[in-house]
Amino acid sequence: MNNLQSLSLYWPELILTVTVLITIIADLFYSPKESGRTALWVLGGLFLAYIAIKVQDSTIVTTLFMGNLAFDPFASFFKTLILFATVLVIFISQRTSELDGHRTGEYYALMAIMVFGMFLMVSAIDLIMVYLAIEIVSISSFILAGYLRGDLRSNEAALKYVIYGAFSSGIMLFGLSIVFGLAGSTKFFAIQEAMWNLEGSANFAFTLATVFILAGFGYKISAVPFHFWTPDVYEGAPTSITAYLSVAPKAAGFALAIRFFNQVFGDGGSFIDPSLTTYTELPWPQLLAALAVVTMTLGNLVAMQQNNIKRMLAYSSIAHAGYMLMALPTLSSQGVYAVMIYLVMYMFMNLGAFFVVIYVKSQGGGESFDDFRGLGWKMPIVGIVMTIFMLSLTGIPPTAGFIGKFYLFAAIINAGPQMYWLAIIGAINSVISLYYYMRVVKVMFFEGESSETVLVPSIPVLLIFMALAIPSVVFGMYWTPIANWVSQSLIFFTQVI
Q: How far apart are the C-alpha atoms of 300 and 267, rounded to whole Å?
């Protein structure tokens, strides 16, 4: 579609753009104490963007703006997921004490900008658009990570985030430039056509460039060895932003990686073309499998050694990125199907765990395991929901996390005996994760002194807990709506755009 025709299918992004402008202007008229009201403008914009996604014709599969963006159910799925995650984090941000005394108009405006950038990430089918989308998300993330300007940890988090982000961005840009030089185009499908005609040193250069690009994707999803920023940034950033970074940008990063490998190396009908293994210099399925193993193993082993729950959840996030990476080398849409289901389940249980940390801190506690001693008796509701989140993150039935891992392991096993080793390592890592997740439950209910006074959360806090805990249980027993939604969103894998 040309630019004017594309606008008719670009309403969610246009709404977000207007939302950002209105939020910034509205914040000028609010006092510092009233600045939090800008959240209402952002929530309104996100709701309208969701409506715009829902009313669009889901049967249309095309490209926008001269082939720079894809319009398909695959992109709509991730846009919806990002919107849900953002709305939940905005509600969570309203209940955190970390933002007290800070003007939050820019905070919510930056979140809306991040949503816009992630919308571009999940739709990008052009190298230039890929880079611009990642930079929009990254720059907004840098500012939000250092939003607590008076907190040295937040300043350190932002500085490290900028350094690592600039480094990975530079590497990815170098890879993108090599691909453009070899293919003579920035369009994914044009690159695919050019790739099959490369010979000798050109083929090696293309393979090397793809590794550089993979580094940029790995940075976004916190895959080893591109994870170094994650623990420090997650620990120092406002906890609400930590929760957001662990879900929404990670989902957008997986969507971008899937689309890139599918449309550059595949045929639009299956995830990586099997002939790629013999054509290129590197066996991509084996490489992705090794990356998954290293990511989840390192994440779990280091998480076991943490005494700060927020930092433990950071390494846990790395491990979960490894779990999702397991499904990508299966060379099938079933693997991508499993990743998409897992991301939905992961959103609820991970945001829930971080919200418990936020609430405990707002009640005068902290982020260490010592601060959680006896929490199950002092705050029984909080202790119960945290237990649900820990069980779900482990993957114990009947929680949503179990269903997510079930689909992941099913995709791996169905890929054939050559992938059984990956399933075994994944199962071992799940057992390892049981140690540090259950450690949280142990300190809440079996350590510390019982309390005669019981603290009951306020109604708004209780509603947020329920909104996160109930799906973490219900989707473990009845997940058909999620499965159907994901299945309808896989049209991308059956048609060439």
A: 35
Task: Tokens for 64, please give them.
Answer: 């926008």
Domain count, the chain: 1
Task: Using the CB atoms, write b or e for 20-35: b if 16+ within 10 Å.
Answer: bebbbebbeeeeeeeb
Q: Which amino acid is at 462?
A: L
pLDDT beneath 50: ranges in the chain: 268-279, 493-497
| Residue 94 counted as domain residue | no
Burial status of residue 452 (CB atoms within 10 A of its CB: 0-12, 13-18, 19 or more):
exposed
Amino acid, res. 402:
F
pLDDT value of residue 79? 94
Residue 495 domain-assigned? yes
Whether 233 is in a domain gets the answer no
Number of residues in the chain = 497
Q: Copy the structure tokens of residue 202.
A: 């050109």
For 302-340, what is each residue's pLDDT tens digit?
Answer: 999 888 898 899 899 999 999 998 888 876 788 889 999
Query: What is the rounded distance in angstroms from the CA atom of residue 470 to the CA atom of residue 345?
Result: 11
Q: Give the pLDDT confidence of 10-36 residue by residue, as tens digits.
A: 889 999 999 999 999 998 888 888 888
Q: For residue 447, which amino acid is it?
A: E
Q: How far is CA 225 from the centre of its chain?
A: 17
